[in-house]
Amino acid sequence: MQVWSWSGFFEYLTNPFLAYGALVTVGLTAAALFFGLILGILLALMRLSGGAVLAAIAAFYCWVFRGTPLLVQLLIIYTGLPLFGIRFSVLEAALIGLSLNEAAYLSEIVRSGIMSVQKGQTEAARALGLRRAQVFRLVVWPQALRIIIPPLGNSVNGLLKTTSITSVISMEELLRRTQILIQERFLVLELFMVAALYYLLMTTAWDLVQRRLEARYGRAYAADAGRR
Questions:
Q1: pTM (2 decimals)?
Q2: Cβ–Cβ contacts within 10 Å for residue 73, how many?
Q3: Residue 159 and residue 64: Cα distance in Å, rounded?
Q4: Which domains, and CATH codes, for the chain?
Q5: Sign for the pseudo-dihedral over CA of 77, 82, 83, 85
Q6: d(C-alpha 197, C-alpha 207), whole Å
Q7: Mean per-residue pLDDT pooled into runs of 10, the chain (228 residues)
Q8: CA 121 to the chain's CA centroid
């Protein structure tokens, strides 16, 4: 009985069908990060707004989406909502589920970054006549971003791998396409190893990008610390 096929492994290592699945994974990650970050910033601002109702709504949202599995959320969106006449395509359901789930986690990252900025700096900016929106854009956000980037980068790394869960609703990302090929060729271990290498390549590439981002946004603070 043949346990491992090197020819099968190398054949699918550069397979266009799997490569396209990897591109879908990257696209899902980027789109979910974009929409999740926008919603996450909104939720963070609601929590910090000082309004009891807005803060309660944002806290409830985070409680629900952080306290329930993404798999369950996807199944509710894709198979549950049609019972009420609300239907989404596989791509729409996957993107909505990933974005809503990611927003709950990103909101806490953004909120902690904003809260790390000393209150005296915002008060000084307001004393100079800056409006509230200008204070956030010019003073708070640039400083908060330095704190946000490291955990945000870790979230992106996790999101790249989390997209594999969307395979349960037949989203043809990397894992789903791997499963399709396994059903055709029965090269189980070989194809899963190829998929693992694709995920490793994607997360490694993002790690390099994250290091560049951290170096860029931390450069001014490192120079300031050096002068001291």
A1: 0.88
A2: 20
A3: 19
A4: 6-217 (1.10.3720.10)
A5: positive
A6: 15
A7: 81 94 96 96 93 95 97 96 96 97 96 88 81 84 87 92 96 96 91 96 94 78 52
A8: 30
